[in-house]
Amino acid sequence: MKRILSANPATRTVEYFHAAGDGQWHIEKVQDVEGIAEAAKARFNNTDERAKWGNGMTHVATIPNVVYWQLEKQGITRDAKAFKRWLNERDNRVFRTRPGRV
Question: DSSP 3-state assignment of 87?
Fold first, then answer.
């Protein structure tokens, strides 16, 4: 059985409650990331790839909440090398806002 627990139109997230007949259950959080991916792509396309990275903070990606919390749970956000590796992976390029390698 699948039921909606909550929905947030601002973040475009929905939480579902899943229950199985054997007493097992889990909560699933889903986010529509199309708008985030489109905004990241627009920013990526408007960034001069020859521009310097700067001495500190440079915006390189826009990561949806559900993806961020999954990375946090895996410990990737607390490990700089693992986070850079994740950002540079081909499958995660959809969230990148700047060309080049992190």
Answer: helix
Flag whether pLDDT at 56 surpasses 80.
no
Look up tokens 């627990």; give the residue. Answer: 5
For residues 80, 91, 30, 37, the Cα torsion angle rounded to the nearest 10 degrees is 90
- Scored b (16 or more CB within 10 A) or e, 17-51 reads eeeeeeeeeeeeeebebeebeeebbeebeebeeee
Question: Residue 26 in 3-state DSSP?
Answer: strand
Cα separation, 43 vs 57, in Å, equals 16
pLDDT digits (tens, 9 = 90+) for 67-88: 999 999 999 999 999 999 999 9
Q: Where are the domains of the chain?
A: 1-32, 33-102
Q: What is the mean pLDDT of the chain?
A: 90
